[in-house]
Amino acid sequence: MPTRPYCDSLGRLLQVPTPPRRLLALVPSLTETLFASGYGPQVVGVTTYCTEPAAAVATKPRLGGTKNPDIAAILALRPELVLAVAEENRPQDVEALTQAGIPVYVFDPRTVRDGIDLLWRLAELLTCPDHVRAHIEAIEQVYAETQALVAQRPRVRVFCPIWKDPYMTINEDTYLHDVLRVCGGDNIFAHRQRRFPLSADLGHGPEATGTRYEARDRRYPRVTLAEMAALHPDVVLLPDEPYVFRASDLADFAPFNPVPAVQQGRIHLIDGKLRTWYGPRLGASLQTVRALCSP
């Protein structure tokens, strides 16, 4: 089978069959993108967390999670191209597949712009038909419209947790932060770095130092709602993944009535896929989040 050389987002050179006939994505958003691009029949398996499109993925073999894929089962399916994401998939799993002769293209989307560029590169890798490219062009148009709209209006302060007990949120080094930024929202914890141990992160003790902590992920700090209140967010967005926020969680914010978001009833339960799934839903994501972040 003929191949073409490509450099992935990490600068790794790999030979990709043109076009690949047996495909596998190690993250749910890329699985959805493959199906939306018309390549569902070529998908040989999905992860435990792949949920969209629901009826289609239900017929595919489950091959473990994003952090613990079943490498032996994947190899048994003989994929010709595996798609991965640097933040969600482990380097050792990518290396295991690569050493077995499977080309693994690793994406590394950090911004909304990166997410759109991911779609263009995937269309190139798969030699996608014109209607797929037309859909990406439509997303480009929404992106441009969003930037123009946001440039003309005041920005709003946003709190977007991803977990509770304790509450956790995101800083400026995350994809979700850039979604908020593009849509006119200023992440109130943009500059907060996660501290270790938990007591230090919550301001109840000294921060631990030393080489054992240097490589730890600091993008997802744990915070208190008192800290949130002190920063006066105009909008609070409560997604349903990874933690499933429900209507009952709105009561957590009731004691903080001076907060503008609480006073004005701007605490919204949202579809978590709209925040973090880069793929065919990116245009709808920008439209929805920019509306929630309106002044």
Protein described:
It is a single chain. With 295 residues, the protein is an alpha/beta fold. The protein folds into 2 domains: 3-108, Rossmann fold; 136-292, 3-Layer(aba) Sandwich (Rossmann fold), CATH 3.40.50.1980. Helices cover 36% and strands 15% of the residues. The strands form 4 sheets. It has a 4-stranded parallel β-sheet, with helices on both faces. It has a 4-stranded parallel β-sheet with strand order 9-7-11-12. β3, α1 and β4 form a beta-alpha-beta unit. The model has no long low-confidence stretch (mean pLDDT 94).
What tags apply to this protein structure?
single chain, 295 residues, alpha/beta, Rossmann fold, four-stranded parallel sheet, 13 helices, 15% strand
Short description:
By secondary structure, this protein is an alpha/beta fold.
CATH evolutionary superfamily of the largest domain: Nitrogenase molybdenum iron protein domain
Count of beta strands: 12
Secondary-structure element order, as H and E? EEEHEHHEHEHHEEHEHHEHEHEHH
Unreliable spans: none
Separation, N- and C-terminal Cα atoms: 55 Å
On the 0 to 100 scale, the average pLDDT is 94
Strand order of the largest sheet: 4-3-5-6
Quaternary structure type: single chain
Helix content: 25-40%
How would you sum up the major sheet?
Answer: 4 strands, parallel
Q: Rg from C-alpha positions?
A: 20 Å
Tally of helical runs: 13
**Structure class:** alpha/beta
Task: Assign the CATH architecture of the largest domain.
Answer: 3-Layer(aba) Sandwich
* Number of separate domains: 2
What is the CATH class name of the largest domain? Alpha Beta
Look up the CATH topology of the largest domain: Rossmann fold
Shape: globular
